[in-house]
Design brief:
alpha/beta; 18 helices; about 40% helix
Length: about 475
């Protein structure tokens, strides 16, 4: 097997609040580059899970045009609820429900990335315990006010056991890696986990830190671990050490002649456009996570939901500058931990097996506001066009013209197809240096044309800011 992928929503192709476009994610682009037509991944029907903001907005635009007036608003609410019901029906009671095989031919996927996964989930979450959690999850049944319940477990159940055969019910992500390594061998593993050890801080705009008590948090269930949204670096190190130890054990039994692991670092979650800066701009000098270089970055006094207006302090649901700086420095320490652990593992081999892809530096260099409107990242020549791409929240006018954004999808968290292309480009550069691919070139014309937010901008985008309905759905997702 030439390529296998373990990760979270970033590696799954999660876009616009739905696990819907794995076909456009960076690992699929890499598989295409390597000429691997058999590289398989899930296709998510009925808009995906839990809900697809892009699909909802396009549906509303087809019904009401580029503006929803107050007389039409009650009907628009019903249309949104109908869309949620379609997804709920499909995944709770229809072909996508538990115990239904993905199809009769698919026994496994080459991409087993799952949205919401943290590091320990790679060896602890199975389809069996997913089905158990779905059966006891609250708010099941025919409820038009929500999409499918237990979406985390529904997604994981499909990815970890698409055939629903009992012999695979206890397989984890790492079990699948070992399964393939022992049979045909796995030449290249794409491994990118860890963002969910900090992402929750900016989704809920509050900090719940792990205690750093020495307790082995990996012994807790996924649900028990959800009480925290920011891992202390010591807790993170214990967990990531456990991940690399398990990966290394698989390398020892891998039948492939070559065995490479390409590891992504953890992006600073405070950069995502979901979190909007309010108040005075402040320049902060800090040490980089990728070197001893001192950098100067722009921060704001407060951060809150992207759709909030004004520049004053939000009344609730916000992080202050000190909290955001703490989050960023914690993530930088995560990345220093990853670098140290990779270096230690590579000392065991005559040639490096573990290769770092500095996805954190990429996002920091791409960031528009963090770099005072002057991003440092050098884009490929194909990006020299108007409108220019940036990391601001996606916006299009009522004429259907893109005004800003381009790298983040409508949830303000996950990359667009074009953003996934940048990630693939960075992975390929490291893979080229390791001899896994001949070059890092991508078919950018195809990537641009695959991005519907770019080729067909949503003229109804202003409704996301002017009415609470869709914005609140996004927050809940």
């Amino acid at each position: 097997m030439k390529l296998f992928t373990i990760g979270d929503s970033l590696s799954q192709g999660y876009m616009s609040a739905a696990a819907a476009r794995t076909d456009l994610c960076y690992s699929t682009l890499i598989a295409q580059k390597m000429g691997l037509p058999s590289y398989d991944y899930p296709r998510w029907e009925a808009g995906g899970l839990p809900l697809n903001i892009e699909a909802i907005l396009r549906h509303l635009q087809s019904k009401f045009g580029t503006d929803i007036n107050w007389f039409e608003f009650p009907q628009a609410v019903l249309e949104v609820l109908d869309q949620l019901n379609i997804s709920e029906e499909y995944y709770e009671r229809g072909p996508g429900s538990i115990n239904q095989p993905y199809n009769l031919q698919t026994e496994f996927f080459h991409n087993v990335a799952i949205s919401g996964f943290d590091v320990a989930d790679a060896w602890s979450v199975t389809a069996e315990n997913c089905k158990a959690e779905i059966k006891v999850a609250p708010n099941g049944g025919n409820d038009r006010m929500q999409g499918p319940n237990a979406d985390f477990y529904r997604i994981a159940n499909v990815v970890l056991n698409p055939s629903q055969k009992p012999e695979f019910d206890n397989f984890t992500q790492l079990d699948w890696y070992k399964y393939h390594a022992e049979r045909e061998g796995v030449e290249n593993l794409l491994l990118w986990l860890g963002s969910n050890h900090a992402l929750g801080t900016v989704l809920g705009f509050k900090l719940n830190k792990t205690p750093n008590s020495g307790q082995d948090l990996t012994q807790l269930s996924h649900q028990e671990r959800e009480q925290w949204n920011l891992w202390h670096p010591n807790d993170f190190q214990r967990e990531y050490q456990g991940l690399l130890d398990r990966v290394d054990a698989v390398i020892q039994v891998n039948r492939a002649e070559t065995s490479n692991v390409f590891i992504g670092t953890i992006p600073l979650v405070t950069i995502i456009p979901f979190a909007k800066g309010f108040g005075k701009e402040v320049q902060i000098t800090h040490r980089a996570d990728y070197s001893d270089e001192m950098l100067t970055s722009v921060y704001y006094e407060y951060y809150s939901y992207f759709f909030r207006d004004g520049q004053s302090k939000p009344r609730k649901g916000y992080l202050d500058k000190a909290q955001v700086l703490e989050i960023d420095e914690t993530i930088r320490e995560y990345n220093r931990v990853i670098r140290r652990l990779i270096a230690m593992k590579n000392q065991q081999y005559s040639q490096p097996r573990y290769h770092l892809v500095d996805t954190s530096k990429v996002l920091q260099d791409l960031a528009f506001k963090r770099n005072a409107g002057k991003p440092k990242y050098v884009l490929p020549d194909q990006f020299k066009q108007y409108p220019t791409f940036n990391t601001r929240f996606y916006s299009a006018n009522q004429l259907g013209q893109l005004e800003k954004g381009g790298f983040f999808s409508l949830d303000g968290i996950h990359p667009t197809a074009i953003g996934q292309g940048i990630i693939a480009h960075e992975f390929l550069k490291v893979m080229k240096d390791a001899g896994a691919v001949p070059d890092a070139e991508l078919n950018w014309d195809r990537i641009f044309s695959s991005d519907s937010l770019y080729t067909n901008p949503i003229a109804l985008m202003h409704e996301l800011y002017e009415h609470d309905l869709v914005a609140n759905l996004l927050v809940k997702a």
